[in-house]
Amino acid sequence: xxxxxxxxxxxxxxxxxxxxxxxxxxxxxxxxxxxxxxxxxxxxxxxxxxxxxxxxxxxxxxxxxxxxxxxxxxxxxxxxxxxxxxxxxxxxxxxxxxxxxxxxxxxxxxxxxxxxxxxxxxxxxxxxxxxxxxxxxxxxxxxxxxxxxxxxxxxxxxxxxxxxxxxxxxxxxxxxxxxxxxxxxxxxxxxxxxxxxxxxxxxxxxxxxxxxxxxxxxxxxxxxxxxxxxxxxxxxxxxxxxxxxxxxxxxxxxxxxxxxxxxxxxxxxxxxxxxxxxxxxxxxxxxxxxxxxxxxxxxxxxxxxxxxxxxxxxxxxxxxxx
Length: 322
Ligand code: AMP
Ligand code: MG
Prior knowledge:
By secondary structure, the chain is an alpha/beta fold. It contains nine helices and twelve strands.
């Protein structure tokens, strides 16, 4: 079976085509804000403008008639952006008379991570712009065992980078700066139960820069502190749930220091550390196509009339039938 998936929750309009054996095609076009962070309406406008071009690129590799199912990212995400992906998916499904599947974006990050790495039953650390969650399967649902109480770690890094006048996305820039950090500066470490918070930490870091601390040292200390919080909660979830695999997914997962810290934690506990290739870490259409294919095979299609987007869609809401 061949599945097409459309991802459009935030910065990327991406279309992927997969079958059971692998990714057949993947194309996308990233929205880059001229200044500031992601503006939902501008990002949606971008997605609408590039949709045709991205689809044409994919259809150079796969013929539309060969598709068996059409999938789209149903949420969570920015309403105006989600609506573009959903509308394009509905149009293709109706035109080709193919079934439609609405996919939870967080679930898709986890499932493509498992697919690409062979992880069976991991505790997943999902770290992206808007989301930061520690997720594991319990029965026929994925559950969130810990999450951010305010902004996602990606947003936190982007916000800090903007304060230094670095362009969006800031995460990779902060990573570069942090490599040249020499001194660790103590910062607020905010873990409450199994949840964490980044908003106060970023304000603290921005104030340090304003007071004249070396930006490299602040970037380094910000990463060390924020990542330690994430690794602590991930480790605690692994211990409580007695799971011996850790899976890192989401755009921030590309960060080498975060990978290194998780790898060390896993070695200490005799657990396996898994991370998919970079291309499939951040938001991409292949993860929607793959997860939609799983859902389709388990009778989880949706009627076009019922295929509303859901900006607050939680991973727990989806029954996992596989
Ligand atoms: P996603 O929404 O899952 O595609 O993730 C996007 C987020 O990942 C943005 O906030 C980026 O700044 C962040 N990001 C990408 N690469 C890195 C990196 N190397 N280190 C830290 N954050 C990153
Ligand atoms: Mg994401």
